[in-house]
Design goal:
Layout: E1 8-12, H1 16-27, E2 31-35, H2 43-48, E3 56-57, H3 61-66, H4 72-81, H5 84-93, E4 98-100, E5 105-108, H6 114-126, E6 130-132, E7 136-140, E8 146-150, E9 153-157, E10 161-164, H7 180-185, E11 191-197, E12 201-202, H8 207-213, E13 217-225, E14 228-236, E15 240-242, H9 244-260, E16 263-268, H10 275-282, H11 291-298, H12 303-315, H13 325-332, E17 335-339, E18 341-342, E19 350-355, E20 372-374, H14 388-412
Parallel strand pairs: 1-2, 1-10, 2-6, 10-20
Antiparallel strand pairs: 3-5, 4-5, 7-8, 8-9, 11-19, 12-15, 12-18, 13-14, 13-16, 14-15, 16-17
Helix pairs in contact: 1-14, 4-14, 10-13
């Protein structure tokens, strides 16, 4: 089967970036077909919505944009053109009004992804967008046509323009497996290595500690590493540590491990207490209390926090009960944990690396592949959780859709 038309646009990938590119292109008059390897659309979007779909964030735009680090100059035009407020308006137009949570994060009022996705697919269908599933893209043939493997055999597709939106390489069972890397490298496109982002880290816990505390949360702690500090929560795992506050530091911690083989994370277990106040509490007589009970009552530490404090002390050969109150206070708000590696890429929330941004022109078209555009997590940017990931995926998808319309106009002119 071969399909060709001067208005035919093929989008590969039915996630947020691909569907947004399809919507923008179809709204501009293109005939759009979205292909995806999975049996249904938006699988990673639905996964993201399991804990409440965090669409974007409400913080001021300059601060918002700073979350994209080195990629900010490349992403700013796209996010300016499809801003957090415009994303919220778009969601409301689909019958999914949003609200701002206590942390500033923005969610649909339904707190779910499925109603939004269903409404979106209905609107795309009404605009003539075709969705073709179980079609895995395998590259191009000698004539530049797209090749897909399907349950019925190979399919060949021609198109006037193509948008690649296949995601990164986290959660491969949902469709983003990074299989596109070799296909683009063969065409001379520079790809930065894919790495885990918003990920957990490996720690060599003792058997006793991980047997007792794996799965336990560290609440309202302050984490410092790589020259950055954040407050939030973390979770002890059998193999290490993860959680929202860890994800916020994951980029700098990961790069430290790449550079030196490890990274030291410092955890303040009672960041709300300054050194003097904490020292005064620890200077009270312990009496006949066990040391753990004393720490729980005097310092307000949870069992997992006490366990972490003791685990760190044992690894450095320190006897906590023998410490003076000042030294004990310093350790409580400066627990040192050695991170030895990242969690596997397949288990990360997102991935870093991808198509080098310099490979794209201002319309998100690949300079080496005229008529081929790219968007979303395929591109070399990363951001913390909190709505920044989806916002950039939607915005770059919209930018690619506008680029497609510009390209089609040039070709027909």
């Amino acid at each position: 089967m071969a399909v060709s038309s001067k208005r035919d646009v093929v989008v590969i990938g039915a996630g947020p970036a691909g569907l947004m590119a399809a919507e923008v292109a179809a709204r501009g008059g293109a005939l759009v077909t979205v292909y995806d390897a999975m049996p249904s659309a938006g699988r990673k979007l639905l996964m993201a919505g399991r804990g409440g779909l965090n669409l974007t964030h409400s913080e001021p735009l300059p601060q918002f944009l700073s979350r994209y680090g080195a990629a900010v100059s490349h992403l700013t035009p796209a996010i300016d053109a499809f801003s957090p407020s415009e994303l919220r308006a778009w969601s409301e137009a689909l019958g999914q009004p949003t609200f701002v949570g206590s942390s500033g994060r923005v969610f649909p009022q339904s707190f779910k992804a499925s109603p939004l996705l269903r409404a979106w697919l209905r609107r795309l269908d009404a605009r003539g967008v075709k969705l073709v599933l179980r079609h895995r893209w395998t590259g191009w043939d000698s004539e530049g046509r797209l090749l897909f493997d399907t349950p019925s055999g190979r399919v060949v597709v021609e198109a006037a323009a193509v948008v690649l939106a296949l995601g990164g390489a986290s959660w491969p069972r949902l469709g983003s497996d990074g299989g596109w890397v070799q296909l683009l490298e063969q065409r001379g496109v520079t790809i930065m290595p894919l790495k885990p982002a918003n990920c957990g880290f490996a720690v060599a816990w003792s058997e006793v500690f991980k047997d007792r505390f794996a799965g336990q949360p560290l609440k309202t702690v302050e984490l410092s590493g790589g020259g950055h500090t954040v407050r939030g929560e973390a979770v002890i795992t059998r193999d290490g540590i993860e959680g929202g506050a860890i994800y916020a530091l994951s980029a700098v911690l990961r790069e430290e491990i790449v550079a030196s083989g490890q990274s030291v994370l410092r955890i303040a277990l009672r960041p709300d207490l300054d050194a003097d106040r904490l020292t005064a509490r620890l200077a009270m007589p312990r009496g006949k209390q066990s040391f753990s009970t004393f720490l729980r009552k005097a310092a307000g530490l949870s069992p997992v926090a006490i366990g972490l404090l003791q685990e760190s002390a044992k690894s450095s050969g320190v006897s906590l009960p023998s410490l003076a109150p000042e030294a004990l206070a310093a350790r409580i708000n400066g627990v040192a944990i050695v991170l030895t590696g990242t969690s596997p890429l397949a288990e990360a929330i997102s991935s870093a690396g991808g198509i080098a941004l310099a490979q794209l022109d201002d319309h998100y078209m690949l300079r080496r592949l005229p008529g081929v555009f790219a968007a979303g997590e395929m591109l070399d940017w990363e951001a913390p959780t909190g709505g920044y990931l989806l916002q950039a995926s939607f915005a770059t998808g919209a930018a690619a859709g506008r680029g497609v319309l510009e390209w089609l106009g040039q070709q027909s002119g």
